[in-house]
């Protein structure tokens, strides 16, 4: 519409110039006076000048308009009135475009100020830097949590805390770890993310103070551990004390002195039974202490590339040998060519423990079944072990990974907690879900 008007006005001017030139030529040949041709010539030149001025003025307006974008200056406005009530549609369009971009610029600035305000007030520390190490963003929380001033380059952290800098360099994209800066002594959860923006590579590192949460979890873990230790030790020590008291009473007379006469056979049998019971309790307590020692000294995994299909076959063979009297159907869905980096002996220990627990939970059931499958993702492999047993009660489910916690009459209760440690040593995890339809353990490596 705007350029149609411009074209029409230029066309009208060209037509008028043509008519004036034709009239000038006609008057030159058809009239005897020179004033008419000269007048028409002057008029033609004037019309050419006005056409040039109009086109040049439009060009200058366009040039100024586009320069406004280069300078990010959207405050300029154009006079839209031409004659009376008529409007210059090109300048109207210019003003509309400038108003739109001005509104967009204000909105963008408001959003920037809002994000800046949020960034400075959040408790999570953020540092974003480019591939060359130049820091684009470092909020107040990051400086406070790390105990350092505002930095220009990320490698300047080495001057303040070399160990922290080394830990950040070893941090992989998407990985999360806990660090304790020497400058602040806080326990920080640190995660890293890489992204690309406008052909620039960026690294974003976040820091969150989890000191209070960790202390609460540590305290809770200690309370649970002490509760289990107290329960186990009391269960062993109380009968020992009772039995030794009984033996002492058998061997003493009414005055509290050792009997001088030979003890009756019945008393000797009671003493023998008491000593056997004391020995059994002592062995149980010794086994508990040994289990505690094993738990506090977790093995270090020897990582190697393992064929998951072959490993599973070998592990199931070991399980069938150890549980020869148990009849459980085991289904497996694993590709033959799948490889995983892990310690096959330790992972076999974890899997056999899960299979034994499932088999014991389904004891006496009709058609007990265990399904083993694999789910692959971009950065991890998940081994899934599911059974169709009665499930784990909700009030017990959250305790299953607590060291020495067990609902069995036999066992030391470190199987699942040790499995948790082994998975953590692989930089993985073990989780459990349970319902009346069965229990599912997920091993993530």
In short:
The chain has twelve helices and twelve strands.
Keywords:
12 strands; His_kinase_dom; nucleotide-binding; Helix Hairpins; Beta-Lactamase; five-stranded antiparallel β-sheet; two-component regulatory system; elongated; ATP binding; 4 domains
What would your notes on this structure say?
By secondary structure, the protein is of the alpha+beta class. It folds into four domains: 2-83; 122-209, Beta-Lactamase; 214-296, Helix Hairpins (Orthogonal Bundle), CATH 1.10.287; 304-444, Heat Shock Protein 90. 53% of the residues lie in helices and 17% in strands. The chain has helices at 2-30, 35-70, 89-121, 140-146, 157-160, 162-169, 211-251, 265-296, 308-322, 344-361, 394-397, 415-425; strands at 125-130, 135-138, 176-179, 188-197, 200-209, 304-307, 329-333, 339-342, 369-376, 381-387, 429-435, 438-444. Strands 2-1-5-4-3 form a five-stranded antiparallel beta sheet. A five-stranded mixed beta sheet has the order 7-9-10-12-11, with helices on one face. Strand 9 and strand 10 (381-387) form a beta hairpin. Helix 7 packs antiparallel against helix 8 and helix 9 (308-322) crosses helix 10. The radius of gyration is 43 Å and the shape is elongated. The two termini are 65 Å apart. The mean pLDDT is 78. Keywords: ATP-binding, Kinase, Membrane, Nucleotide-binding, Transferase, Transmembrane, Transmembrane helix, Two-component regulatory system.
């Amino acid at each position: 519409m705007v350029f149609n008007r411009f074209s029409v006005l230029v066309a009208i001017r060209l037509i008028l110039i043509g008519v004036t030139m034709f009239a000038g030529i006609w008057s030159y040949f058809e009239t005897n006076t020179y004033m008419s041709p000269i007048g028409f010539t002057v008029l033609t030149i004037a019309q050419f000048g006005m056409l040039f001025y109009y086109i040049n003025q439009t060009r200058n307006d366009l040039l100024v308009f586009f320069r406004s974008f280069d300078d990010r200056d959207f405050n300029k406005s154009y006079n839209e009135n031409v004659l009376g009530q008529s409007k210059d549609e090109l300048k109207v369009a210019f003003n509309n475009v400038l108003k739109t971009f001005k509104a967009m610029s204000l909105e963008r600035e408001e959003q920037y100020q809002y994000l800046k305000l949020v960034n400075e007030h959040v408790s999570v520390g953020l540092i974003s830097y480019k591939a060359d190490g130049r820091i684009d963003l470092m909020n107040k929380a990051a400086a406070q949590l790390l105990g350092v001033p505002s930095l220009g380059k990320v490698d300047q952290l080495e001057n303040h805390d070399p160990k922290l800098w080394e830990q950040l360099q070893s941090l992989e994209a998407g990985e999360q770890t806990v660090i304790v800066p020497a400058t602040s002594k806080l326990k920080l959860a640190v995660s890293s993310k890489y992204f690309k923006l406008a052909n620039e590579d960026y690294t974003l590192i976040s820091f969150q103070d989890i000191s209070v949460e960790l202390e609460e979890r540590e305290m809770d873990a200690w309370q649970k551990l002490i509760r289990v230790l107290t329960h186990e030790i009391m269960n062993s020590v109380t009968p020992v004390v009772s039995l030794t008291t009984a033996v002492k009473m058998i061997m003493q007379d009414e005055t509290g002195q050792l009997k001088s006469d030979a003890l009756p056979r019945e008393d000797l049998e009671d003493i023998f039974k008491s000593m056997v019971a004391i020995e059994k309790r002592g062995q149980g307590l010794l086994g508990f202490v040994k289990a505690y020692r094993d738990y506090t000294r977790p093995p270090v995994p020897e990582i190697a590339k393992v064929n998951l299909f072959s490993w599973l076959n070998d592990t199931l063979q070991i399980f069938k040998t150890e549980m020869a009297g148990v009849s459980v159907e085991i289904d497996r869905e694993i590709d033959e060519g799948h490889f995983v980096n892990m310690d096959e002996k330790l992972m076999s220990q974890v899997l056999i423990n899960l299979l034994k627990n499932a088999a014991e939970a389904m004891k006496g059931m009709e058609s007990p079944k265990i399904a083993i499958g694999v789910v692959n993702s971009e950065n991890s492999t998940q081994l899934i072990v599911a059974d169709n047993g009665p499930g784990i009660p909700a009030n017990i489910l959250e305790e299953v990974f607590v060291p020495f916690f067990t609902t069995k009459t036999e066992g030391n209760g470190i199987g699942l907690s040790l499995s948790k440690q082994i998975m953590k040593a692989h930089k993985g995890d073990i989780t459990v879900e349970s319902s009346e339809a069965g229990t599912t353990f997920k091993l993530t490596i």
